[in-house]
Write a structure and sequence with these properties.
binds flavin-adenine dinucleotide, 317 residues, elongated, alpha/beta, 2 domains, Rossmann fold, single chain, 8 helices
């Protein structure tokens, strides 16, 4: 069976959940083979996790020589591993970096590229949700090694032991790949909540909050969710722009999306309508958001949310 390469997205060896989702998808197409690019001291933690989630093989590329350089060294590393492994496909997370690496790699390998897939079938056919979610497209790469970027939350990670055979892979990185280097990086102050685009649950607030996001945040924390917002809410300065969900904000596809005091404008829907389950709380029963919900509550969010939060916390306790 051919290998399916999965580029590992990690922070200092801590493998992020979307990579585990990719391993589950890779198993459908062939033998999952992870590509870890990072420092040798972090490789042990990562390889254990990757093997536990089905990686049969793990290529470890020590990044001592290339740390901090922008994406091109990673492209060259993947290109060299692909030349050796001749994989059935290469999967990456649909992040800004993942898509940039994928695009550059596709040119070098003269391969077809599909971005923002939300599913991959056994035969390599991908599903994409396009034009603000109004069309579902099935597509397949017809040339070269299929390179596919997959949106977070598109698959469920499966804890299944793989052989996890580690191969230290020595890459030769060209000077041309080392032309731009990060000189300093400051992590954003942690909120303690999951990253918006990766969260399994997102609780969002809109103009209907009146600027009081406390009930939204309390419900999010009870559910272990990320907080999102409509553009009306961020334009009012109630939440940072990085929280905006929609056409001109982040596109999320969680298992559960809870929209509170959000009318459901088409531009907001574009960012959340592929969520698996949608719940809305709105005091106007005619609000367009109710057209796409699985469960709707007509009521004042300032009453409904604290009551729901209390119930959830009680049941957890
Ligand atoms: P409103 O439309 O004002 O809705 C507020 C809702 O809250 C109403 O339905 C009301 O019934 C309800 N409500 C009020 N009080 C309560 C209460 N106490 N309890 C419960 N419910 C209550 N918008 C985005 O969100 N994301 C985008 O990325 C985005 N991109 C855009 C791009 C373009 C080019 C354009 C033109 C617009 C874009 N918009 C975007 C804006 C979008 O058109 C809407 O204006 C916006 O989504 C409205 O936000 P809202 O639902 O919070 O506010």
């Amino acid at each position: 069976m051919s290998e399916v390469l999965v580029l590992v997205d990690h922070v200092a060896g801590a493998v992020r959940k979307p990579t585990l989702e990719l391993l589950a998808l890779a198993k459908r197409l062939g033998e999952p083979a992870a590509v870890f690019i990072g420092s040798a001291e972090h490789a042990g933690e990562a390889t254990a996790k990757l093997a536990a989630y089905g990686a049969e093989k793990i290529y470890v590329v020590d990044d001592a020589e290339i740390r901090g350089f922008l994406v091109v060294p990673k492209v060259e590393a993947l290109q060299q591993i692909a030349a050796q492994a001749n994989p059935a496909a290469i999967l990456l997370v649909s992040s800004a970096e993942g898509k940039e690496i994928a695009a550059r790699l596709a040119i070098r390998l003269e391969s077809g590229l599909i971005t923002d897939a939300v599913d991959i079938a056994k035969d390599g056919t991908t599903t994409q949700s396009v034009f603000a979610g109004s069309y579902t497209v099935a597509a397949k790469v017809t040339r070269g090694i299929p390179i596919i970027t997959v949106k977070p939350n598109s698959a469920t990670p499966v804890e299944t032991a793989g052989a996890g055979t580690v191969e230290q892979f020595a890459v030769t990185i060209s000077d041309a790949a080392k032309t731009a280097q990060i000189v300093a990086a400051q992590p954003r102050q942690a909120t303690g909540r999951p990253e918006l685009t990766e969260a399994a649950i997102v609780v969002s607030g809109g103009r209907g909050t009146g600027g009081d996001f406390a009930p939204i945040e309390a419900l999010a924390d009870a559910l272990g969710a990320a907080v999102g917002a409509s553009r009306a809410a961020v334009d009012s300065g109630w939440m940072p722009h990085s929280y905006q969900v929609g056409q001109t904000g982040k596109v999320v596809s969680p298992q559960l999306y809870v929209a509170n005091g959000i009318s459901g404008a088409i531009q907001h829907r574009a960012g959340m309508q592929t969520s698996k389950t949608i719940v809305a709380v709105n005091k106007d029963e005619e609000a367009p958001i109710f057209e796409l919900v699985d469960f709707g509550v007509v009521g004042d969010l300032h009453t409904v949310l604290p009551a729901a939060t209390e119930q959830i916390n009680q049941r957890k306790g």
